[in-house]
Amino acid sequence: MKHYIIPIFIPHLGCRHQCIFCNQQSITGRPTPVTARQVRTMIADRLAAFKQKRQVEVAFYGGSFTALPEAMQNELLAPATEARLQGHIQGIRLSTRPDCINEPIVNNLLERGVTVVELGVQSLDDTVLAAAARGHDCKSVAQAVTLLKKTSLRCGLQFMPGLPGEDWLSLLKTVQRALALSPDFVRIYPAVVIQGTPLAGLYQRGAYQPLSLPQATVRSAYMKLAFERRGIAVIRVGLQASAELDREGTVLAGPYHPAFGELVDAHIFYLMLAGFVEQGIAGCQEHLLIRHHPQDCSKVRGHYNNNIAGLQQAYNIAKITLQAEALVPRATLLFTCGGQDYLLNKNMINSI
Ligand code: SF4
Questions:
Q1: CB 99 within 8 A of CB 140
Q2: Best mutation site among 9, 10, 12, 199 for ligand 1, i.e. most ligand atoms within 8 A of its Cβ?
Q3: Which InterPro entries match (predicted)?
């Protein structure tokens, strides 16, 4: 059954801090928060539009939901709670801050039928969190995740590589600490400079340099591989493209790309390709036949065929032939060279 999310944006509702990178009005394209009446109408309209049965979730994004007064949380949740009790939707998810999770809050969410809580974490390095004016530290993340994991709620963490003060070492620390927390899933949104944010001020004064697109691709690919190897789903990489974000003047700088997730997957395929060639197997440089699943075609080739052209050039390979075959599993490559077949998938990449 197809999965569908009814997104409800509550830009900056409940936020006690202005995190330096954040401008939810620009990210969500919605200037004002919704009312409970609007939530009810949105859910009813979307449900009425479905022609087939679907697995539906209502999701509250863009603010600090559990920082709102309890009465207001309950008012906004009520239409979703009712729809879930009536069997029209199967889940309710919301995003919030790690320091706005405690036992009474969690109990209230459970009573209202909430199923998933996403925590905006961004980094697990206290220096980076302080520079981003997050207003919480790593300890509050650990406490919130520990509490959520004792319940039936699923817990997701959102990370933002490339914030001021973060280097590779800091990112490695973040990933190792996140793996230890073992969330149910993560999202990765590399930091971009959005107009109207304090980060834009830093950038314009020359005090902050965002990651380039290739740097953000490599860091996000590392994170994605590290999480997936531990069985932690990575459900989103890169900001969702929108008319608002694509409007000139919204994103001032940084690694925003409408198909960022695809770039990251293509880089992971490049690591597989290069990893195989570097084993120096006989015949590899004369002719390399690479079979892949048909749906991985663009990821194997890379943006503008960069993966294949780059591989050929870097390793001096005379001929590369690509062949799509439905029998090859997704995210797997079947190499043939020197009369032998070799299989490689992304879990076999030795170094990232
Ligand atoms: S990152 Fe989250 S807590 Fe910070 S301002 Fe944006 S919505 Fe509010």
A1: yes
A2: 12
A3: ELP3, Elp3/MiaA/NifB-like_rSAM, Radical_SAM_C, rSAM, rSAM_horseshoe, rSAM_sf
